[in-house]
Amino acid sequence: MNATKRDYYEVLGVGRDCDTPTLKSAYKKMAMKYHPDRNPNDHSAEESFKEAAEAYSVLSDPQKRAAYDRYGHRGLQGLGANQGFDPNAFTDFSDILGDLFGMGDLFGSGQRRSRTQAQRGEDLRYDIEINLEDVMKGLSVDIQVPRLDLCTRCQGTGAEKNDGIVTCPMCHGRGEVIYQQSFLQIRRTCNQCGGRGQIIRRPCTQCRGERYVKNERKLKVNIPAGVDTGTRLRLQNEGQPGLNSGPPGDLYVVIKLKDHPIFERQGDELHCTIPVNVAQAALGTQIDLLTFDGLETVKVAEGTQNGAHIRLRNLGVPRLQGSGRGDLLVHIDLRVPSKLTREQRKLFESLRETLPAENEPHEKGLMDKVKDYFM
User: Fold this and answer.
1) Greatest Cα pair distance in the chain
2) What is the distance between the terminal CA atoms of the chain, rounded to a whole angstrom?
3) What is the pLDDT of residue 111?
4) In terms of residue numbers, what domain contains 221?
5) Are residues 346 and 252 in the same domain?
6) pLDDT digits (tens, 9 = 90+) for 333-357
7) Which residues, at least 6 apart from 146, have a Cβ–Cβ distance to it below 8 Å?
8) Could you tell me if 295 and 248 lie in one domain?
9) d(Cα 307, Cα 13) in Å, to the nearest integer?
10) Taking all residues of the chain, what is their mean pLDDT, rounded to a whole number?
């Protein structure tokens, strides 16, 4: 083993059985501590940084790590690991150090993001409230959406046509400047042109150099039957325009359902409550109910109890993702009169004499017993 070199695992402070995430995390800590930008004119820190980078370059490579684990530093001869550290040979350093210091492409690997590249525009959101009647049938509605549009005068350049744009004198049109520090070649976005490579000398008089103008766009939205609160309808390419000729984003129309005075929606079912008096519940009756499909006759059976419900098939909400409709459930609310006329009182007194007195507490049902057991 070469006595001038420390053990790579010792340099990074990790065990020999460490996995890749642990190895990368250890190197990040070393890079943060000894990076030349954080330790200017500190030769010792610079050497420690190089040592950690060399150790990581070997241990992050499965072939070199296997050779090192078996033979030590001698096993790396011929694998390019003892020829001095070359940052250009390890693309992973750009990701690690770029994240730490916000320097973009540190080693010129060609993976940096350019502000001159086409970028997709942002998505927009438009909230709309609709009635339950609209949910049952669907509707088409016109909306006004505020958004940005490409300036028609400058075609998105932000400058006047004649000599409005000049090449950036700082980066000479590259959009970035390159600094050489120690063995690192650092690329940074040009501060003068913001990465565009060009500078606006005479801004467009219409958009004032912003490249876009604010407009309101009128769109027709087709809302299908069966939508619910939270449903999102996507209108492709109706969002904000993209940068540098990139594609526009999308517009998402988000539905909110207003409360209905009679019907309550629960999934694909509709629910409503109708009051019945004691005589109607005891003798049975028929009640006309105005639904979204017209007048329906609800048959209340003889002896119906309070809280019972009657199911009307296929009178609920249309299914958005499928065929058919849900049901309409009519709940019975038994109303006992709080005041009686003399005639009504006599009738109830006569009825009381003929009905059996069932005032003894009844035995709990099976489900009630199960609930009591677990409570």
Assistant:
1) 116
2) 71
3) 44
4) 119-157+208-258
5) no
6) 999 999 999 999 999 999 888 888 7
7) 214, 215, 216, 217
8) no
9) 71
10) 83
Check whether residue 21 and residue 93 sit in a common domain.
yes
CB neighbours (10 Å) of residue 244?
13
HSE-up of 354 (CA within 13 Å, CB side)?
6
Which residue's structure tokens are 């065990």?
15
CA dist 249 and 80 (Å) reads 47
Q: Are residues 37 and 86 in the same domain?
A: yes
Position 84 confidence tier, pLDDT thresholds 50, 70, 90: very low
Determine contact, residues 328/311, Cβ cutoff 8 Å: yes
With cut-offs at 50, 70 and 90, classify the pLDDT of residue 261: very high
pLDDT digits (tens, 9 = 90+) for 21-39: 899 999 988 888 888 777 8
Per the domain annotation, does 38 fall within a domain?
yes
Q: Of 116, 98, 117, nearest to 188 (Cα)?
A: 98
CB-CB contact of 155 with 164 (8 Å): no
Number of domains in the chain: 3
CATH number at residue 302: 2.60.260.20
The Cα 135–Cα 266 span in angstroms is 13
My answer on whether 290 and 335 are in the same domain is yes
Instruction: Give me the pLDDT at residue 177, please.
Output: 84
108 is a domain residue: no
CB 196 within 8 A of CB 116: yes
Cβ neighbors of 242 (< 8 A, separation 6 or more) are: 118, 119, 120, 121, 248, 249
Q: Can you tell me whether residue 119 is helix, strand or coil?
A: strand
Residue 190, in any domain of the structure: no
Note the helical H segments in the chain: 8-12, 20-34, 43-59, 62-71, 92-101, 132-137, 278-283, 342-354, 366-374
pTM (2 d.p.): 0.59
Pick the closest to residue 297 from 286, 311, 309 (CA basis).
286
Report the C-alpha gap between 108 and 90 in whole angstroms: 11
Q: 199: closest CA among 146, 232, 235, 157?
A: 157
The b/e string for 163-191 (b: 16+ C-beta within 10 A; e otherwise) is ebbeebeebeebbbbeeeeebbebbbbbe
Q: Dig out the tokens for 200 from the structure.
A: 């606006």
